[in-house]
Amino acid sequence: MPVVLAVTLAAALIACSPGDDPPSGASRESGAADHLVAAVVVEHAATTSSHERPGSLRHRRQVRLFSQEEGRITLLDVFEGDMVREGEVVVALEDDLLQAELDKARATLAQTELDVRRLEDLVSKRAASDAELSQARTAVAVAQGDVRILETRLAFTRIPAPFDGVVIERLVEPGDFVSKNTHLLTVADPESLVAEVYASELILPRMKVGDPAQLRIDALGAVAFPARILRIHPSLEQTSRQGIVELTLEDPPAGVKAGQFVRVTLETAAVERLLIPFRALRRDRDGELVWLVTDQGQASRRKVRSGLQMADSIEILEGLAPGDRIITRGFLGLSEDKTVKVVPE
After folding, report:
1. Start and end of every CzcB-like barrel-sandwich hybrid domain (predicted)?
2. Going from the N-terminus, what domains does the chain have, and what CATH number goes with each?
3. Parallel, antiparallel, or unpaired for β 83-84 and 282-284?
4. How far, in Å, CA of 125 to CA of 278, rounded?
5. pTM here?
6. For residues 288 and 307, what is the distance between their CA atoms, to the nearest angstrom?
7. For the chain, which has fewer Cβ within 10 Å, the N-terminal or C-terminal residue?
8. How far apart are CA 91 and CA 77, in angstroms?
9. CA 116, CA 124: separation in Å to the nearest integer?
């Protein structure tokens, strides 16, 4: 009797791979030739996946104000955090020299217009040529252009707010002399806050604009706020193969600020996937594979390509079909065409 018990224990050990529990239904009376395995039938399943991604809040509508003329700053009364109204002059530059040049250009224009009227009278009396009149009219057009240029440059010395917003950067002070194209202020629209996160190329096709999401802001505690996908960027980052997803908060809480760290939970739409237990997927030098049980009760290797992993299951993209029976336990000593006995998990 001890000899029979030893043979039975040896068969059970052969049927289990390291770290696997032996199939619970293994019979104590199995013969030594039986290779015990556990197996499941592959089927499609409608699944959704939840993915948490870290990101940051930022202002989607943000404008940096630059000087278009050089000069000394004579007006700058707003500071970081101040609200400004659209069209409100927030920065003014010294304009005395431009104003003097404009006065001069207007005087020149008035003189050229007077010359044209005088020449028109002389031409009518045949006391001047048409060529002289044409040159005078050209001088009027040039003088008008000079006036418009100086009026435009003078307007550039008054810099208005582009929209209702908040000042988030003040980089100069009254009395500073600034050259052209100097960054003076930055104004942002506080209502344009978006969360920006990166998502894998594997889940991007299963998301669309308007899909709901949950957003947590670490600085405001563990409360989750409802959000929606605003935009999915069309290009991917070449190294990580991830794309940018922008989300808007449906009801921004008090204390929310640009730059805060967020955690966004994205839910993908239900998709039919071919799922198998993760423990059934094996790897060797040639890549990923699974072991199948054939209709003749024999083991057979099959190369596969996997996709998303969800909990203890993994998606199979290539290599399997619904109805295939794959081995989930009992890999130790398994070989091609070896006869196996399927027992319950």
Report:
1. 66-189
2. 2-47+272-342 (2.40.420.20), 50-60+190-269 (2.40.30.170), 95-156 (1.10.287.470)
3. unpaired
4. 104
5. 0.63
6. 11
7. N
8. 8
9. 12
